[in-house]
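Typical record is below.
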Amino acid sequence: MSWHAFLPLGIVLSSLLPGLVIFGLREDQQRLRVTLNLLGVTLKLVLVGSMLYGVSQGSEYRFSVPLLPGVPLVLQADALALLFVALSSLLWAVTTIYAIGYLENSPLRSRFFGYFSLCVSATVGLALAGNLVSFLLFYELLTLATFPLVVHRGTPESLAAGRVYLAYTVGGGSLVLMGVALLHSLAGTPDFQAAGYLLEQVDEHDMALRVAFALLILGLGVKAALIPLHGWLPQAMVAPAPVSALLHAVAVVKAGAFGIVRVVYDVFGAEALTQLDLTKPLLWLAAATILYGSLRALQQQELKKRLAYSTISQVSYVTLGVALLGPIAAVGGLVHLVHQGLMKVTLFYCAGNFAETLGIHRIREMDGVGRRMPWTMTAFSIGALGMIGIPPIAGFISKWTLGLGALEVGQDWVLLVLLGSALLNAAYFLPLLWRGWFAEPADWHQNRWADERFETHWMLLLPPLITALLSLLVGLLAATALSPLGWSQLIVEREFAI
């Protein structure tokens, strides 16, 4: 085994090992804790950068050790894996800075950052997983690592939300386990393959394959927040802002969507799913979730809950692109995985800044906030306009590509879903922007604002400015080869047999 083979393992260990050390640190060892976090972040980004270059040049990275009889633990860095790993690593780096500033003087920081690192390790592990059993292992580890983050504050509300989160995700994980076990009994557990590996089983085991697909989609749909499996996500908003950002943009929700991509293209394959006639129900479910999430977001008066229902809608664009089974639609779904992450993490950073600096939690409290926090409100505006699909921000690129993909495969009705969602997005985001920039500040704001000299702590301000700028740049530079759009096209050309 060459040293190249250990690079995928290195990506997992670069956050896992610092996280384990952080657990043992005293609360007053802040400098050491920050140093370990930043060293892990830096090493992970260097490894990801080198592997992105290697894969673009045709290199292969595969680590394998025995796990179960006939089933190895496999970590492999293909182009699809690195799309998700690059997003997770970048946003982990930025969110780490944000969390250090957000939790300054808070209790239990060692515990928080320990689980924070474990969560990212599980996320990149499931992205790099080379077969279904390896994926399942990291998928369940992600559940265990995120639960302590959801209940971190220890309030009755957070504990109740944690119990709901655990019930949903453990139940979903059980369904994934049953689906993986059923497929293993039919075809073993080979590595993920372009065009899948189940086509030969279709004629003989068509019903069993339908059952396995349903189990996997339902199980993965819990974390992907597909209706009616989304109930945990709005309740989990009681967690601290860095955790909300992690859940929505980096880890849990994206892990579910990524798993659906793997199952559709690298386990079943487009041809097998077409013969089994399984993509239409998935397409309808994604379309329904997009519209439902947008409608529920419109009804919310708490800022973080509005953002949570927005996530339910926006992440389903990934499933929609996958279910259309066309090359252009697949590109649109994959690139939205990245674009939505950048925009949504920006919005949650800003929501956290509003809450921590000014005590703003509800939408009616945002009146005039742009005058007090102009930089934060600018970043929030970029994220919100991108979610609507306003060019040249990232969201426009992915939604335009999805629309072209729907036309390519003759599913014209999907355009109505995209248009309806865009109008609903505008209906629940534009009033926030109007309130923030143009409404007169409420009287109760005045005393609180008068004591503040600066907008907020620099470690809280820098992350949303970085991610907002990236949301603009990936839209403006979408035509370049190494943009998320260009990389998604590379994935479809190399790895998806459509």
